[in-house]
Design a protein that fits this description.
Layout lengths: L10 H13 L9 E5 L1 H13 L4 H11 L8 E5 L12 E8 L3 E3 L3 E8 L7 E8 L2 E3 L5 E7 L6
Parallel strand pairs: 1-2
Antiparallel strand pairs: 1-3, 3-8, 4-7, 5-6
Length: 154
């Protein structure tokens, strides 16, 4: 986890996370690398790509925006609202760079209930509940980066 909260998610923060993983002997050539960002971070990227179209990172962002399924800098990008927010500032948030193997999802347990609805003739209710849990398996496969979505864009 590294704290450089003076900018949005930059090429340097992504490269630093990859460097730290390599130092911990993570083989990035054989791992599926994922980058979890917030919609605000993605919007900051889009804004930057439009305001500085000749910058190298802006070109990389533009390529990502043209074809999101290809990812960015070797990372599959996941846009989510489930990232940790700073308690210090509403604009600061943590992005995660991790490998697919970093997390383990347990097999879901299901509970299915069939019941007749009271007050309704021949109306049947079918309800299914599922419980799923996720745990982090290896710390060296996960790297966080704090970003600030206001001020300096990239």
């Amino acid at each position: 986890l590294f704290r450089s909260v003076n900018s949005a998610m930059t090429i340097w923060k992504i490269q630093e996370a990859k460097r730290r993983m390599r130092i911990n002997d993570v083989d990035l050539d054989s791992e599926l690398l994922c980058l979890a960002i917030s919609p605000d971070m993605e919007m900051a990227w889009m804004t930057y790509a439009q305001t500085a179209p000749n910058d190298t990172f802006a070109k990389i962002i533009s390529n990502y925006m043209d074809n999101p399924s290809k990812g960015i800098l070797g990372c599959k990008v996941i846009v989510t609202n489930k990232l940790t927010r700073s308690t210090v500032s509403a604009t600061q948030q943590q992005a995660l760079i991790f490998t697919k193997r970093a997390f383990k999802i347990n097999a879901p347990s299901y509970e299915i209930k069939i019941d007749e609805l009271p007050g309704e003739r021949h109306a049947t209710s079918l309800v299914a509940y599922a419980k799923v849990g996720v745990v982090r398996r290896w710390d060296e496969l996960v790297c966080g980066a704090w970003v600030d979505n206001v001020g300096v864009l990239v």
